Hints:
The chain has nine helices and 16 strands. The chain is 28% helix and 26% strand. Among the domains are: 2-60 and 321-328, no CATH class; 86-151, ATP-grasp fold, A domain (Dna Ligase, domain 1, 2-Layer Sandwich); 175-237, no CATH class. By secondary structure, the protein is of the alpha+beta class. The strands form four sheets. It has a five-stranded antiparallel sheet with strand order 1-2-3-4-5. It has a five-stranded antiparallel sheet with strand order 14-11-10-15-16. It has a four-stranded antiparallel sheet with strand order 6-9-7-8.
Amino acid sequence: MAVLMKEAADVRGLPNLYxxxxxxxxxxxxxxxxxxxxxADGVLLEAINDRWGKIGRNINHKASTLTGDxxxxxxxxxxxxxxxxxxxxxxxxxxxxxxxxxxxxRKPVCVKPNRGSLGKNVFPSIYTSQWYEYALHHVAKVKPNxxxxxxxTGDHFRFFYISPQIAGIRQGIPFHVIGxxxxxxxxxxxxxxxxxxxxxxxxxxxxxxxxxxxxxxAMQNLNTEDIPPIGQKVFLYGASNGTAGxxxxxxxxxxxxxxxxxxVEQACKSIPGVYFAGVDxxxxxxxxxxxxxxxxxxxxxxNPSLTAFYYLWKGYVVDIAGLILDFLAEGHDFS
Length: 335
């Protein structure tokens, strides 16, 4: 991602230095409007001098405390009138309470860490208590706090917000194969992976089956040797993150009803200190106007990846890095 920022800085004639300093993990230092910024490990930092010796401060630092807490973000958005999935928060030490709450949820449910990223340890589309308990124990092994929420249906989008408006829209389609009535899931997977190898996109590497994807198939009463009928879409993973194997499709704003851009912009503005963000939202029909029953905001990411907007499966590139630099060049106070 730092390379994309450097290329955008070069185009704009902004002074910059690209290098990987192992000791502090800075990959890019650049200047915009007489300020110095760093781009390090996917985080945009404003250079500061303080007694703690930090190299910089996240420009979204005011908002990060809230948005890093998925349940806290959901509660905030709900209080401000935005549509969000119903859910509950559980601590690992109270896992029995989470298990006993299964019947109180509308099915299916999704189990995930309250603080997590990259689509890891996410278990969507759970209908049975057996898989629910399995998912709870799995998440509890790696994270202290667990979020359980209703698994709403629709298409998954990430709206990239650069204050004060939406800059790009990505649709993420969880990794899947499509049945032809004669080929096993394993062979369909190999064919799709061959296409990914041919395209050689860094955001779409060959999909590797792991225990979580095998479990996801098992939740659908399937295994890799099953032969799906013609036209059946079989999902091998539930997360729509590119890092979880999802296909990336980029859409023009005109392809999505304007009410969704307006809602996401309002949601970002409801949280002080959000200057740019990736907002995940489920929409049932992107061409229909928004209502409380046809979309749900899932979360706001303060350090969103840029690469999906440059290396895509379908659509047209959006120069998000350049738009961020144009924003910084306007001059803003992030203190």
